[in-house]
Hints:
heterodimer, A: alpha/beta, Rossmann fold, three-stranded antiparallel beta sheet, 22% strand, B: mainly alpha, ABC transporter involved in vitamin B12 uptake, BtuC, two-stranded antiparallel sheet, Metal ABC transporter ATP-binding protein (chain A), transport (chain A)
Amino acid sequence: MIQHVTEPVLEVHDVTVSYQRKPVLWDVDLTLPSQALVGIIGPNGAGKSTLIKAIMGLLPLNSGYVELFGKSLKEVRHRVSYVPQRESVDWDFPASALDVAMMGTYGQLGLFKRPGARERKLAMEALEKVGMQDYANRQISQLSGGQQQRVFLSRALAQDADLYLMDEPFAGVDIATETAIIELLRQMRETGKTVVVVHHDLQSAQDYFDWTILLNMRLVASGPTHETLTPDLLEKTYGGRLTELSKVSELLHKKNFPIRETKPVRK
Amino acid sequence: MNIDAFWIILTGALVAICCSLLGCFLILRRMAMVGDAISHAVLPGIVLAFLFSGSREVWTMLIGAALLGVACTFLIEFFHKKANVSADASIGVTFTWLFALGIILISVFAGKVDLDQDCVLYGEIAYVPLDLWLTQSGLNLGPRTVWILGGVLVVLLLFISLFYKQLYLTSFDPAFAAAIGLSTTLWYYLLMGAVSLTTVAAFESVGAILVVALMVGPPATAYLLTDDLKKMLLLSAVAGIIASAAGYYLALWLNGSVAGAISAVIGIEFLLAFVFSPSHGLLSRRRQLMPVANG
Lengths: 267, 295
């Protein structure tokens, strides 16, 4: 079930990506409507993060192309915002929450200009939107996992883009933060933005997203959530009985380790 | 303080500032040992430059060494990415091999090359005041090394202050940096180029080992003292300057090697920060862990 839209915000056309000759994404072809909250769902290693990275031009494509707002990424970079996985950076880095939020404004500053009062104000506003204004000068290692995730979101908000691509924004955050974040994403959708979120919890996906992409190396489905989150398609995505297994293991994981604080592994 | 002492301390301080500023970015990128690698890998560059030009002209040596330094970082990345060797193993293989190449070149052309391994490794900061820059009319402008290092420092200060935000962002979150259109590869090689330049300029006077000590020690000390990168850069430069001045007098008192004494002071600074740092120190952490005893 792959549904295409006219005048898409994002078009991924026949994209194949591989790591060392092993394909991670195989011939993925999809379009996304504007003003939508989109979930990318699939088992571990299905290529969910890879898809987002490929869209952002962070990985070379073996074939196909990506168009955003009908143009190449280079032309519309300022309209697209990327939120990497929280574990991908070193949170012991000497930076405050405000410093990180301010990085969202760097894209518009050009080569030489330094962030000044205007950028500081934008960053503060972004921190306010995620409820982190009181922690602006706090060093980032002293924040909880959920707070760190909010700071990451504030950096994306400071970019003031139209399309947001978020890699696992709900990983390792507490329930209160998850609720706050999804509320914020809904507000963003109301103001006309499109938000694409990598997600791995099937239960909540139903409520959160109005468009769902099911991925397992190949694209299984892309369409309105009520049409894609069907037992049939989910079985196809997770591979038959594996559905139950992965559900069980996911639940166990959550019970045992409600917040997974892992140190970033740098190569 | 006599004039020789002044020049030696000034040289040490200039090297210390250059190395410690760059070292901050290196340790934050978890690449502290790249400084070590470059400082050794420039040796064949210097020897080759000497063999080709036949003179110990500073500029040819600087260029030869800087080229090898960048080539070294390129090789490290290449082995790491293409051959899937871990980064530290890749660093270890690359620089020992290049350094060995330099040693072989020196020993084969021993008659022609006025260089020796001891000088490369330990430098001779005490001889700095001897190599003076005299103009045509015989005007004494002070030691040549001081001018070269001063020039490098100006370049570095411009580089870091103009491109602070790029260096900051590509060090903290390369994926996001790339997503907003910064070339992480470009900034990586610019930083490595700056490290090569500094190493080469510094190494004749202070030697490879002191370069490594200054690139890692003061930044690590500053890292323990602050949570703000700008303050970290400043503190690390200050720690480097103190180490070079204190090291000089320690060497004078012991009648020993200046470079060795400076390294020793750097070690002491780090230990002091490790124990007494208000935020990350051993003592303050212990205090935080102690139960509050008020009934």
